[in-house]
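[INFO] parsing input record for Calcium-dependent protein kinase 1
[DEBUG] input buffer:
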Amino acid sequence: MGCTCSIGSKFRRVKSLNSNGTLEEKKIHSVGEIVVQASNFVRENENKFQDVYRLGQALGTGGSGEVKICFHRETNIKRAVKIFRKDLITNEAAKVNLEKEINILKTLDHPNIVRIYEYFEDSKRLYIIMEFCKGGELFDEIIKRQTFSENHAAQIMYQLLSAVAYLHNLNIIHRDLKPENILLEERNDSLNIKLIDFGTATYMTPSRPTVGASGTAYYIAPEVLAGRYTEKCDLWSCGIIMYILLSGFPPFDGKTEDEIMSKVSSGKVNFSVNPWPNISAEAKELLTSLLCPEETRISASDALQHLWITTRINRTITNKEMLNEVLTNLRNFHTSNKLRDAVHTFIATQCMTQQDTKDLKEIFLLIDKNGDGKISKEDLIEQYTSILGAEEAASEVAKIMKEVDTDKNGFVDYTEFLKASLNVEKVLSAGNLKTAFRVFDRDGSGTISASELRKILEGGIPSDERVWNEIISQVDQNGDGEIDLQEFQDIILAKF
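[DEBUG] output buffer:
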């Protein structure tokens, strides 16, 4: 586009070990090797931002831009847009961090992490379109309430720790966890959260410390101040947030940042002042395991299994009818065609609203027993055993994993769960199918070509041209080498 801050042109060439133990560039040789993920559809939109969205009120401002509400002109869906002024992104490090933020957001697929939809770029600004959360910042809710009950605080901390465990499993450190970076999904529901703002997030190398100070004074870990740290710095920040939820004030306070950081470095937590004498021993034990030296600090996965969390999380699914529908939909889901799988993925991640998926999110979190942000085979067997018996449940789950676990990582990820669990009639509505067709028809010609499929689904991995021609041939009814809207709808709705 001829601009100085382009982030849309780079992609990763994937390499793997061959039989001789040397690295070789990975390549897609067959249709079965294509992995469809939500990130396939998070792309730079080549249209003008103003032609696709209209702006609403401001939600916040920062050093190089602001966050506003925006409305998709065609669907009227409300979203949030993070707008960066390119004239304020003056150094190469800031440009690299911005590119890294988008790349990290594209890879994340967790019910408690904000979803990115697309981005735009013009000569003056970069626009990142994300999920909109009606409830505002957790920080404002803390100011309003002053304190949370232990049960409510545990509900929030469970979701936060689940998101952090998920990030750390991907070797990502957030580095700026604080109530201002946690949003509430609904205005009248302070217990469902989304983690946001990955502007300072970074990739980590296991067994090698990260360097470079990052974070906010009240929440920053002492080892970050020292300049060498690991992912455990996020757990310190979780401890500070938990302390504030229960007490209404931070454990390390001061009139200046230097005074605050001096107290952080000492690391001494005071449990003698109110309300701490009335807080449970389990809560203080977990806090002591979080607000401690890095080498003895608990991990996010272990914190999720702490007694204070497990005894206060209600794991009872109240909507039994919805659960039964989900379990039925999972059993009936089939990925018989790569294009159908791609369309299901697009609609589940780009067209469904928070309201559409609210009940499914609750069920996903409850089925995911250890809170790591994905559903294991064992999690599913436990659910199906109650209705099928142990032997039949194991057999049925094996079939489900084969169909639903499309990236073959051994788990049902959140997007895989959504696309397999959603009501098919709702997902494959005429409106959603037309929206999906327009996305695949990148040049607006009225037909989808092999090259257009390739641009969307290749995912930065080189591939043979015949792979995409094969997908087209499976759908192309009139033999013109392309897919028109009618052919598109016929294959997606086939056997429905």
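[INFO] Residues 313 and 430 are 40 Å apart (CA to CA).
[INFO] shutting down worker
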